[in-house]
Design brief:
Order of helices and strands: HEEEEEEEEEEEEEEEEEEEEEEEEE
Helix content: under 10%
Structural class: mainly beta
CATH architecture: 6 Propeller
Oligomer: single chain
Radius of gyration: 18 Å
Shape: globular
Number of strands: 25
Number of helices: 1
Length: 319
């Protein structure tokens, strides 16, 4: 598959997600001012659809934008495809075009490089539940590890799951990821107890539709469910780059599909810290956003602003 070929190239060129490499001892990486992100005017408070308080972030053409009362306002002019918003909504981490991990505030201001020499494809920085750390991969030795945002200290994980597109569960105890062969996995937060999700990506009679995914999107708080971009049959799998899309939720213990209480074509599912979900569905006329409780009930369903129709949903920080 194309995905596998691209990942092999990434290992040779930029220490991507190939076979396990020796894990070096933790190396402090002091935070330093960065000039990678030009200053942009501060955005006004965001104004999502009525009934859905908080901040909605989208990616379009590598820009990261936030919905405001003036419409979409650019927060990052580049690096949006690798960006993630902190759970508290106060900061954004992304990988710049020099493969450095940079943290900015919610308006894209006050950039700080917290790791020099990361990996610019396949390893988006993901936030800890308390918004003080990010997990990413150091390019020099392909070591996945955690950066303390305040100090810039990088600490490699004790174990290496050999994944790409890592996710960090809201309970702080689990990692989700994909492999270079379009399988999905989960592990403990230190990388131990790694296991593959059954069926997904297996070449077996039990998987007749050839269901597979190299693009995990979000992880439930306890790691038991994962929203992913699922491919079947002869669908192309693309390359190692991030695909900001999810069309299904699967049970990571069994590989079974989890039914969602919405109608329409699902294009994104963002798990919330309380176990609920923000589900985006697309339509020919407009898109819709449904806030689903942890018990599976639709709490709020609203029409997404037309200005965001062709954008990719990146994050939602509740008010």
């Amino acid at each position: 598959m194309k995905k596998v070929l691209v990942i092999i190239a990434a290992v040779l060129v930029s220490a991507g997600c190939g076979s396990a490499q020796p894990v070096a001892a933790p190396t402090p990486s002091p935070a330093a001012p960065s000039t990678a992100v030009p200053s942009t005017p501060a955005a006004s408070p965001s104004t999502p659809p009525a009934g859905l308080p908080g901040s909605l972030y989208y990616e379009q053409d590598d820009h990261l934008v936030r919905l405001t009362d003036r419409g979409p306002v650019t927060v990052l002019p580049s690096g949006g495809i690798n960006a993630n918003v902190s759970p508290d909504g106060h900061a954004i981490a992304y990988v710049d075009h020099d493969a450095n991990v940079v943290v900015v505030d919610r308006d894209g201001q006050h950039p700080r490089t917290v790791l020099r020499g990361g990996v610019d494809a396949g390893f988006e920085p993901v936030w800890s539940p308390d918004s003080t750390r990010v997990l990413t991969v150091r390019g020099s030795d392909s070591a996945p590890g955690v950066i303390d945002v305040a100090t810039g200290t990088f600490t490699p994980l004790a174990h290496k799951p050999d994944g790409i597109h890592y996710l960090w569960s809201a309970d702080g105890r689990h990692l989700g990821y994909a492999t270079g062969t379009c399988r999905l996995g989960v592990a403990d937060i230190d990388g131990s107890n790694a296991r593959l999700v059954p069926l997904i990506g297996e070449v077996t009679a039990a998987n007749p539709n050839q269901e597979r995914s190299c693009d995990p999107y979000s992880l439930s708080p306890d790691g038991s469910k994962m929203a992913v971009d699922m491919h079947t049959g002869d669908m192309p799998d693309g390359d190692i780059g991030r695909n900001v899309f999810a069309n299904i939720v699967i049970d990571t213990r069994t590989g079974a599909t989890v039914r969602l209480p919405v109608s329409g074509t699902v294009s994104a599912v963002l798990f919330q810290p309380d176990g609920g979900m923000l589900v985006r569905t697309t339509g020919s006329g407009s898109n819709h956003l449904a806030l689903v409780s942890a018990t599976g009930a639709v709490v709020v369903q609203v029409t997404e602003p037309a200005a965001a129709k062709e954008m990719s949903l990146i994050g939602y920080a509740p008010a």
